[in-house]
Structure formats: C-alpha cells, structure tokens
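Researcher: Re-running this chain for the archive, since the previous output was lost when a drive failed. Same request as before.
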Amino acid sequence: MEMISIEKELRENSYPGRGIIIGKSADGTKAVTAYFIMGRSSNSRNRVFVEEGEGIRTEAFDPSKMEDPSLIIYAPVRVLGNKTIVTNGDQTDTIYEGMDRQLTFEQSLRSREFEPDGPNFTPRISGIMHVEKGIYNYAISILKSNDGDPSGCARYTFAYENPKAGEGRFISTYLHDGNPLPSFEGEPKRIAIPDDMEEFASMLWDSLNEDNKVSLFVRYIDIATGTYETKIINKNQ
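Model: Regenerated structure tokens:
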C-alpha cells in the first residue's frame, strides 16, 4: 500500500468525521495513537476532551447548550493493563469490559454495530494497542452498514503485528462530507509517524478543517517501559 501524506489527506477533506491513527514512531521506541472529533451541528461542536484516569472522555463545553448527549458523550480512550483502547463511541466500554472477561477485541465487538443515526449510520471505528515487555501490536476495527442499508452489518478487523517504525494507519468514519455521509471504505490508510509528539499533534490539528474540528488527542507510549505522554487540543477553551 502506498504511503500517503496525512497532512494532505486532512487538508483536502472538510469532513472525515472522527478519525483514529495508530502506529509506531520513526525511531521505533514509541507506540503512537491519535483520535480527533469533528462536528457539523452546534451540539456536536459543543464538546471538549478531558482526561479521566489513564484515558479521556468527551464532555459538554457549555452544559446549558447540550441538546442530546447520546452518541457524542463517551470515553474515547481507556486503558486496561497493557492495552490502550481508542474508539469513536461508547464501544470503548464494550471492548474494555469484554477484554476484562478474557474475550478478544473482535469478540468484544460482536454485540455492537454501526450507530443508529440514519440516514448516515455512522460506522463504529475502534483500535486496540497492546504494549508488553518491549513488544507492540495493534488492531483496527470498523463496523459499518451494508452500503447504507441498516439491515446488515459489515465487520472488518485489520491486525498489525510488529509494526514498522515510522509507519501508522489512519481510519475515519466518513470518506468526505455529504448528505447522507458516505462511510469509510477499504483498508486503513498507510501514513508516516514522526518521533516528535508536539510536532505531530500540531500538524494534525492545523490540517483539520477550521470550521468543523472540535478536539484532538495524541499519545506516545514508550514500548520498553509503558510510560506515556499525552497531548490534548480543544477548539473550545
């Protein structure tokens, strides 16, 4: 698969929706993830990321303007031992609880499907990072309607063992803006991952559409020790 420029990819797409990036830093020492949210409605845009334990959650920036918390208030990132879970919805909790009961990533998601927000039927995108004793693997999942038909759910999981240094994968909920919004298609896209977290976070944030971007989370995990650094950027301050 050809490596694409994530900067160009985001700059040329006004509305990829929500996106997950997972990979490994160029020097091979860090497991890297990023998650961003965007919004077209005032309800979706009225959000911020806040830290919660070792993860994050979304919350209303102005609680008085919150119209409907369903589908937009959730914990995108949770940590279960040596596993970091990143998703675009409350399936974070489903994965956490399932894996805590010794289910696999895929088995945990069997009870879920795309979001009930017709006519978009937003895909549920999820990632799992496993860092243990200097070994790092990750997987990415997408649960989507059958080309907009909610009578069926298509389930795809992409697993990456011993990922290459300096490379990552990017998946988003939508291909681009539209009515209804077209779901992401194909494999997660291959992108470059730099060593510098601040530089990476700034590039991603600056590349997202100014009107639609809401929040960004970036984390670099030391593969040898499991310690991590986190960067959160919120448009609402």
